[in-house]
Amino acid sequence: MSKLTDVPKRILIGQALRSDKLGETLLPKRIALPVFASDPLSSVAYAPGEVLLVLSIAGVSAYHFSPWIAVAVVVLMFTVVASYRQNVRAYPSGGGDYEVATTNLGPKAGLTVASALLVDYVLTVAVSISSGVENLGSAIPFVVEHKLLCAVGAIVLLTLMNLRGVKESGKLFAIPTYLFVAGVFVMILWGAFRGLVLGDTMHAPTSDYEVRPEHQGLAGFALVFLLLRAFSSGCAALTGVEAISNGVPAFRKPKSKNAATTLAAMGLLAVTMFCGIIALAMATDVKMAENPAKDLVRDGTPVGAGFVQDPVISQVAAAVFGDGTFFFVVLAAATALVLFLAANTAYNGFPLLGSILAQDRYLPRQLHTRGDRLAFSNGIVLLAGAAILLVWIYGADSTRLIQLYIVGVFVAFTLSQTGMVRHWNRHLRTERDQAKRRHMVRSRAINAFGAFFTGLVLVVVLATKFSHGAWVALLGMVIFFGTMTAIRKHYDRVAEEIAASDEPSDETIRPSRVHSIVLVSKLHRPTLRALAYAKLVRSDQLEALSINVDPDETKALREDWERRGIDIPLKILDSPYREVTRPVIDYVKTLRKDRPRDVISVYIPEYVVGHWYEHLLHNQSALRLKGRLLFTPGVMVTSVPYQLESSEAAKVRARRRANWTAPGSVRRGPVERRHREPRDAHPREPHGKG
Amino acid sequence: MSKLTDVPKRILIGQALRSDKLGETLLPKRIALPVFASDPLSSVAYAPGEVLLVLSIAGVSAYHFSPWIAVAVVVLMFTVVASYRQNVRAYPSGGGDYEVATTNLGPKAGLTVASALLVDYVLTVAVSISSGVENLGSAIPFVVEHKLLCAVGAIVLLTLMNLRGVKESGKLFAIPTYLFVAGVFVMILWGAFRGLVLGDTMHAPTSDYEVRPEHQGLAGFALVFLLLRAFSSGCAALTGVEAISNGVPAFRKPKSKNAATTLAAMGLLAVTMFCGIIALAMATDVKMAENPAKDLVRDGTPVGAGFVQDPVISQVAAAVFGDGTFFFVVLAAATALVLFLAANTAYNGFPLLGSILAQDRYLPRQLHTRGDRLAFSNGIVLLAGAAILLVWIYGADSTRLIQLYIVGVFVAFTLSQTGMVRHWNRHLRTERDQAKRRHMVRSRAINAFGAFFTGLVLVVVLATKFSHGAWVALLGMVIFFGTMTAIRKHYDRVAEEIAASDEPSDETIRPSRVHSIVLVSKLHRPTLRALAYAKLVRSDQLEALSINVDPDETKALREDWERRGIDIPLKILDSPYREVTRPVIDYVKTLRKDRPRDVISVYIPEYVVGHWYEHLLHNQSALRLKGRLLFTPGVMVTSVPYQLESSEAAKVRARRRANWTAPGSVRRGPVERRHREPRDAHPREPHGKG
């Protein structure tokens, strides 16, 4: 093909494929890491603080347990990462926790995981935004003074962006995430250099505060319980680790291997940052209290309600870089930005999970269609509404919201890992290759340990946090579970009702005749078109029907009809109360009663308009009538559209809408098969002349 | 026919005619009076007070002008009544002010009247409810302490009642209206008896108060202006007089004569009550002030903001019967009730006028259908919303609301009477019978005087009240006028666009072939039905089309298709992004491009469900697709409904809705022609075999 003819074609195809293009871009590891890791990495902005906060209940002396808790979190992180590396290898098609649990443990386990994840998406938004506002507030006081307003504003902004359909691009994620990671590492290294090499003593803004312990001299079971609670809070660092397992198809080849490597890199980064921040917090004497107003004491007096307890990461940054310095502000901004990105991942993950659930008929079918804007919008609004509600109730306080957060993640972790154990068991039953068997046994051991450990953590989280708010998350899960079960039941019932039996039934016995009726009010172009179309489709009987609501108009219609010599009989029904619907319905019923095996085909000329308000002015009677006719058995209703000039505007809008790409496409990866030419199951043949 | 077979038939017919029955009950005068007069009669509850209130600006000494103002109001009332007696005679079909103005003065005048009346309906609700609450409050202090809340609550209650569709029955109106009239007459007679015969001195609760004049010793033009303002306020007694002229068809025969008699009776009752109350107010030394808190003085000190100024009628009742006595409470209750009924008349009048305006295409066509519940509901909600807004803004203060009220009525009066003069002029041009001519000349004189007098009052009202609030009413009229003009323009533009020319056009040239496509996802009953129907309607080409969103489902469909041996070719289109709409649209466009004169007929199997939430679970993709297909020229879309079991519930609801009677039927009267058997314009003949 010559170059000259190629250009217009390329432009055309480029145009036509535009909406598909995004999905076809596979992610290199350096881009995949920020795309998937903004959520887990951003949690180091709040997780270390939560650990200190809980420990402070037993007084500052309890802070010396924090390295041990950090170690426990690190071990857990390695366990979870190792476990999910098995997942991504076993399910290269992108087996998320829902799929793994459903396949291996049955639909109820799968639905439980799905409910947990849906709740978690809501909490990701609520927690990340609240924490982002707190971090931004450490640099810009206005933000923290109007915390709730800013948090709600940020959610609304994210929602609008996602409703408009911002494309999720790798770069958008890469820059803030790497900036954040680099910032934290610079801080850790510079802090270590100042402390260990220069011998500087660094002081956090709260270093000269005292913490009044709520419980003096805790020991025995009470102390263990407190340490477990601190550990539970630290587990917030693990949220979002599972996201990669959904996104394997988005990686470059070898997909599974690259995904596993990215997972490992992410785990390593997360634990390093987590431990570094804890270490710096200890070195700079950060003080955190659960109720700072009461328990944080300066010069013998509590700081009171006006005090704002800045996040650990910003206190450490103030100690290392100096409060208000360039580096301090950059890190605060990067932290806030990466937290907002983390919130944004929920906007992508929610409809993705929704589409998978819709495929299994737990949610309305239309969610299954990728890029269905309306369905996507509904999901986004639901997500945003629930997140705003939580932020409102909990005053955008990340500490209180985190109590709700971790339950869902660990439900998903535990069930997914248990499912993986079953997966390996099943494969071991048939696998004969000894090398592969050894590999599988090793994987099973990892997953079994993962299941055990995450299950243990789940019990710990439930035990230590239930009354602190975890019950809210459980309630949310129950509601999602119940709704989805009900939807599935409805679909199953309908499927049974409409299933075609093999015996001849109403539907397979061919009805005898078709009686066509064209509804007519005036002889204008839409009516003439409907009459022409109805004649073209050959039926056994064809008549035009007009309802006499105004004698003058009816007379004019009749005269026009005869003048034009239209060869279709015109029937006129009187309607003393100027109703349109009832006389038509009654007439159709009479026809059906006279000849029960006839099918009545009703043609309705319809205006196609371009603006919503024009709908109020047109077609209302037609719509009402159509709605009623559909309830009448043996009737079909044909709309014969007439495109008014104003409909051009709506056509353009509809086309633009069709080319819209749903956010979340990057992480979903491309679909397997490519677009092919339409193909026929039977050879084409003219039909219907018989 | 035997009696036995008659019974079931009568039951059936009785059932079938139920919704028509109401309209067929013609009103005797004794019922027609309360139905139409609750609005004008109830205004004597506030009109006398408004007169005193305005006069008080010049001090109590100005009260001695009140009899003269009463006389002016009486003369005006007789003029208006006499004028409308000509209307009901000239337009026995129920020529309301809108019709009279449109017919005789042209559409712009008609639309002005319509706008004025629509604004007036809103104000009738706002003023009557506010005044009703004030009257009820004179007996039950709680009501007046929570005036705004009670007023809004009453409007909401009325709205809900009307949305549910309470039937307007003559009795409902008769009892409170006659109770009110009787109560006022007993009060006037008993007061006259006590004062004139027994020689009692009766004291109103405010008799020993003083009024501090805002302007001492007004004279000359300022005094005349004040008197004119007092007169304008008194004109509130005339609102609603025009209602009978819409309702002539609801009267028993001789309709016009009975309507005229009822009008006269109503006028007589109204002026007697109005004058009686003014006289009693003077005799019992009622004091009213425009700003009671400041200008009403007791023992030298203003009464202050906590003082509640009771309506004149209740102050007079307290003086005549004694405060809190049985008669006092009964009269207060009857007054409140008749005022609520007056507000209710607006709920009936608003959709009635809307239906007439819709017929002239100033409002959406579907409003024209009598008893169209949805359209009716929209009108009711609009009316209630506007009334609540006004009540809210003006603090449910009837005095402030009345400033807005009278403009609209007098615009309607003046234009209607001017129109009547033209009406007689036109008839006099052709009438030769001398007796009839004399009668017409006399009628013309009455209407001319009516037009002159009401026009003068309109000027007075505008001059004295413009800055007090009449501008709000004018603004409302302008908004209604503008909206309705825009709607009419839109309809006219569309009518021009779709008008069929006599030359052959796209619509009259018969398209060449029809290519039918049945959309298929699975082979269940709805699909089988759609396939059977599509085959029955013979088209030139018929094929089934399925979109491959899931390879397994598509494979199952293909196998099922072959197993059942369906003789329709099945085409399968791939959709890599699981979209349904786009591949279908693209395919249809390709077909159209290949054979531009083909018509594409798309059959969509649809589920008919019974609950709104089921709509979320079904047909969404079908609806979306249908919406997009309608924008494609040369396409028709056929819905083949499959009634799910749950649709039974909706069918029952729809039937109930169809039997619903719109409030306002009583005053509208029955329509002229009766329900006839369907008749054919052409003899019936089988058609479409050719």
TrEMBL record, chains A, B:
- Segments of this protein annotated with the region Disordered: 654-690
What keywords would UniProt list here? Answer: Membrane, Transmembrane, Transmembrane helix
Could you confirm whether the keyword Transmembrane appears in this record? yes
The annotated regions of Basic and acidic residues compositional bias extend over: 669-690
Q: State the Pfam families in the record.
A: AA_permease_2 (PF13520)
**Compartment annotation:** Membrane
As for membrane topology, the entry says: Multi-pass membrane protein
Q: What is its main location?
A: membrane
InterPro entries, A to Z? AA/rel_permease1, APC_K+_Transporter
Residues that span the membrane, as ranges: 65-84, 111-133, 139-160, 172-193, 218-241, 262-283, 326-353, 374-395, 401-424, 445-463, 469-487
Give a yes or no for keyword Membrane in this entry: yes
What protein am I looking at?
Answer: APC family permease
Record the organism.
Streptomyces salyersiae
